[in-house]
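## retry 2 of 3
previous attempt timed out at serialization; input unchanged, resubmitting
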Amino acid sequence: MTIEYATRYRSRSFIPPEPGKPYFVEKGLGDRAHLFTDLFTIYAGGEQTENTFNFFTCEGPRGDIIPAHSHPDTYEVFYIGQGAVRLFVEDTEGEQYERLLSAGDFGFVPKNCPHAYRIEQHHSLIVGVAAGPGGTFERFFENLGAPTDALGLPPAPVVPAPAKFGTVPRAYDVRFLPGQEWRTGS
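## retry succeeded, writing output
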């Protein structure tokens, strides 16, 4: 049995609104949001971990590269649970890396490094963890995208209004980099 809570983000959630409580969430029943063509599910966030880390998944179809961005104060982990995802990263000296990650593969993005990814196979699943001194960014997905109770992918892409790109990201340690070019070949 999964317990429901009321939180400041949602009228009903399976994630408790404060730290220090053990809890369990059934597969897929975390706080969900649609953004672009993907489904993001948060299982633990800043409220539960005293802003030390978050844990989320991203499920999506094969698609376009997501916008290049960086997190000035946050380290991010990409673990591929299913499918294949191409990860693009630029280090702080400007050297670029590109790697096709398959199920079981791991990618690490240090803070302040531009990065992006592209889902290469339908039904891919990214398991993400982010941590850093600036807190956590998991509520970015539902504030830029659209919160949902649906368990699947969005029926149509959820594309944020242009004004949201200028306001929401900064509150969540996300800096979009519209001029970023990937010289890695893919």
